Amino acid sequence: MRKKRTFLPETYVVLMLLLMYLPIFVVVAYSFNDTKLFHWAGFTFSWYQKLFHNQTIINAFFNSLKLAVLSSGLAAILGTMGAVGMAGRTFFGKGALEGLSTVPIMIPEIILGMAYLSFFSLLQVPFGMLTLVAAHTTFCVPYIFINVKASLQSLDPALGEAALDLGASRRRVFFDITAPLIFPSILSGSLLAFAMSMDDVVISFFVTGPETATLPLQVYSMLKMGVTPEINALCTVMLGTVFLLVAGARLFQSARKAKKGR
Amino acid sequence: MEQEVILSLENIHKSFDGQKALCGIDLTIYKGEFLTLLGPSGCGKTTTLRIIAGLESPDEGRVILGGTDVTDWEPNKRGVNTVFQSYALFPHMNVENNIAYGLKLRKVPKEEIKKQVEEMLELVQLPGFGERMPSQLSGGQRQRVAIARAIVNKPSVLLLDEPLGALDLQLRRQMQVELKRLQQKLGITFVYITHDQEEALNMSDRIGIMNQGKILQLGTPEEIYEHPKSRFAAQFIGQSNILKATVTGRDAAGNLTLSFGGGTILASGQGEPGEKVTLSLRTERVRYGREPRQGFTLSGQVKNNHYSGGMMRTVLTLPTGEELLVSGMGDGIEGRLPAGTQVHIGWDPACAVIVERGWPDEAE
C-alpha cells in the first residue's frame, strides 16, 4: 500500500526557519539599502564604509573583544580548577556546592548587575575595565564549570589509573591524560562564555566606566537616537562572524570525527 | 620444585562503606606462575587485584612484593602493571605512544623506546599498527595493545582484570592460547582474574576460587576440579551432583560406604558411621546402564534426556525421589536409553568427594 504523500513536515520546517530568520534577513537587507528610510532605494556599501570609519564603534568593539577574551580566559582557568578539584572526591555538601557553582546562570542578570554594582561601590573600586572583567569572569565561570564537569564524569577512571599504573605521578596523570581529554570541553565552555560576554548588555550596563563602553552598550546607546543603517551594517558584520565561527566549529568537529575514524 | 616467592598477600581486609569486600586474603604467588583468581562477580577478586596494583589500599594486612613491603606505596612506584578490563587505552595517543608511555616516564632513550615498541608490536602480532589510533582498532587488537603497553615495562607481576571479558567466544579462545604463549615466552608472573571457569582451567598453573571476600581453595586446575573442597567450588566449576548422604562404614577395599538414594554408595574420604556428609559428584563421572556392573550400587530410572551438541545430559530418578544429573557421550552411557528405562547406577568411589560435613540447609 502506498502511503499518501503529505508536505506537512516540510511546511513546519520552512515556517520555523522563516520565523527565526525573517527579522534578521530584514536587518541584513537594510544594511545595503541606499537610504535611511524604509523603502528600497538601491544597493550600497556606504553604511559599511561609515561603520569602519566610526572610531567610537571601533573602540567599543576592541573593548568588547578585550573584555571577552580576558574574562572567558580567566573563567576557563577558574572553572576548570573547580571542576577538577571537585571530581573524584566525595565530601559532605558536595551536591550543594555544585549547585551553588551553577546557579548564577539562572539568576536574572538584572539582579547580578545590581549586586556587582553595590559590591564594587562598597569596595570603592573605580568602574572600568577592571570591574567589567571581574563581573564577566564571575558569570562566565559556570559555563566552563558545567562543561568540564560533564566531560570529567564521562572520562573512564581507568585511564588515570592506567597512567598511574604505568609509572606516572598524579601531576603527570593530569597533564598527560586528563588535560588533553577534557580540553575540548574547556574550549567549548570558553567559546560559550566568550559569546555570553561579547553580547552582554545588562551586567555591563551596571559595572562599566565612562571610558569603557562595550559594543552592545554602544549599540544600545546609538539606538536611542533611532535605528540607523550603520547599526544594521554592524549587526550584519557580527552575524556574518557568528555564522563563520559556527560553520568553522562544525567543520573542525567533523574533521576530528573523520580522523578518529570509522 | 624450587620456587621463588614473588608476591604475597597477608591477611588482607577491605571494606567499602561498611560492606566487607575482602575478609582475610592470604595468598603466595611464585615467580613465573600463571595464577588465576576465579569467582562470581562481587566476590572480591577485582579488589584483590587493585590492592596488589596499589589502586586501593587495604584496611588491614600487608602486600609483599619481591621481599619488600609495598603496602603503602603509590601504584607508580610498584613494579607491577595492569591490563584493565576496559583496556583503558589512552584515546588521544596512537598505538605507538600508548605502548611507549611507561618507557617515556622512565626516561628510556628515544631510539631504545622505538625499538622496544616495534618488538612489542611484533610480539602481539600487530606489526605496522603504531600509527593507528585506539578508536581505529577492533576489540581484539585493543586487547593486544593493552597487553603490549603493560609488558613492555617488564613488570615483575602482570595483573590482568578479566582481559578477555569483552571479546566474543572464538576470539576469546584464540587470545587464551596467545596469552599463555606470551606468558611462557616472557616468563612473567601473571595474576589473572576471570569468572569464566573454562578460561581458568585452560590457562592457569594454579587457581584460587574466591567467594564472598575469601579464597576458598587454591590449587592446580586438576586439584580444583577433581577434589573440590567446598560445595561452592564444586558447583562453581563444572557441573556437580550434590548428594546428602550418611556414613555407614567402610568396605573391604577401604572405601567409605554411605547410605543414599535408597542404597549404599561408595566415596573417598573420612567419616564416622552415622555422620551426615555432603558429597560432590561430577556429572560426567556417573555411570549407568540396563545391566548391573561392578560397583553399580544404586538403581533408578531414566527421567529424560537432553541433547546439546557434543554432550548428552540425562536426568536419573532414584527410588527416594532424588535426581542425578549425568553428562557425557559414549563411554558409560550405552546409547540413549528412553525415559522410564530401569537402570543400574554407579561410579568410581574416588570421584565422590566430601565437600561439607553435615547437610546444607534445606532453605538454600
TrEMBL record, chain A:
A GO cellular-component term linked to this record: plasma membrane
Give the main location.
Answer: membrane
Q: Where in the cell is it found?
A: Cell membrane
| Bilayer topology | Multi-pass membrane protein
Q: Entry's PROSITE patterns? A: ABC_TM1
What are the transmembrane regions?
12-32, 67-87, 99-119, 125-146, 173-196, 231-252
Alphabetically ordered keywords of this record: Cell membrane, Membrane, Transmembrane, Transmembrane helix, Transport
Which residue intervals define the domain ABC transmembrane type-1 in the entry? 61-247
A Pfam family recorded for this sequence: BPD_transp_1
Coiled-coil stretches, from where to where? none
Q: Give the matching InterPro entries.
A: Bact_Polyamine_Transport, MetI-like, MetI-like_sf
Question: Transmembrane as a keyword?
Answer: yes
Instruction: Say if the entry is tagged with keyword Transmembrane.
Output: yes
The GO biological-process annotations, alphabetized, read as:
transmembrane transport
Q: Name the family the entry cites.
A: Belongs to the binding-protein-dependent transport system permease family. CysTW subfamily.
Stated name of the protein: Inner membrane ABC transporter permease protein YdcV
Name its species. Answer: uncultured Anaerotruncus sp
UniProtKB/TrEMBL annotation, chain B:
* Keywords from the UniProt entry: ATP-binding, Cell membrane, Hydrolase, Membrane, Nucleotide-binding, Translocase, Transport
This chain's protein is named Spermidine/putrescine import ATP-binding protein PotA
Family listed:
Belongs to the ABC transporter superfamily. Spermidine/putrescine importer (TC 3.A.1.11.1) family.
- The chain positions of domain ABC transporter read 7-237
Q: Does the keyword section mention Methyltransferase?
A: no
InterPro entries, per database record: AAA+_ATPase, ABC_SmlMolc_Importer, ABC_transporter-like_ATP-bd, ABC_transporter-like_CS, Mo/tungstate-bd_C_term_dom, P-loop_NTPase, PotA-like, PotA_ATP-bd
Q: Which reaction does it catalyse?
A: ATP + H2O + polyamine-[polyamine-binding protein]Side 1 = ADP + phosphate + polyamineSide 2 + [polyamine-binding protein]Side 1
